[in-house]
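Re: [ENG-882] Designed sequences occasionally contain unexpected residues at chain ends

Forwarding the minimal case from QA. Structure tokens:
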């Protein structure tokens, strides 16, 4: 019995680490991923087709798409190709869509530049920013005093 439970837990853990496939993405994300595939293959596809691996980060304004080389040769047009197997070799690419625009995709080893781009694209909504404690007056100075006075 213990062995069956162990096997069941291992299978559940394995399934949870698979990640999202291209087919499971919603329409909005597929548009962003397709744009990333096209840009990355144009800029970094050196013989092998680059295709969707994961969406690493997201907020209201930003989606960070990670692409990996596949077993398929590069060809145009660059679109998602489900027959290609992802490979864990270079170049692995990060494409950041910020507010609907996507700059040149970066190699994953450029971690400082990737982080800089992510920081330049903050979320639209800052939780807590509307709280009474963070309100400011017309002269941009924090307000103090009673709640009704602010």
């Amino acid at each position: 019995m213990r062995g069956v439970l162990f096997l069941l837990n291992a299978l559940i853990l394995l399934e949870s680490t698979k990640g999202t496939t291209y087919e499971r993405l919603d329409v909005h994300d597929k548009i962003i991923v397709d744009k990333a595939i096209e840009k990355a293959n144009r800029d970094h596809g050196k013989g092998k087709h680059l295709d969707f691996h994961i969406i690493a980060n997201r907020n209201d304004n930003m989606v960070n798409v990670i692409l990996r080389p596949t077993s398929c040769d590069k060809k145009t047009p660059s679109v998602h190709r489900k027959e290609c197997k992802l490979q864990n070799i270079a170049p692995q690419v990060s494409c950041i869509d910020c507010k609907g625009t996507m700059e040149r995709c970066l190699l994953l080893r450029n971690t400082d530049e990737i982080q800089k781009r992510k920081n330049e694209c903050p979320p639209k909504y800052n939780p807590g920013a509307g709280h009474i404690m963070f309100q400011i007056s017309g002269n941009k100075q924090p307000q103090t005093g009673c709640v009704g006075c602010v």
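QA comment: On inspection the terminal residues look reasonable. The helical segments are 2-16, 27-44, 111-119. Proposing we downgrade this to a documentation issue.
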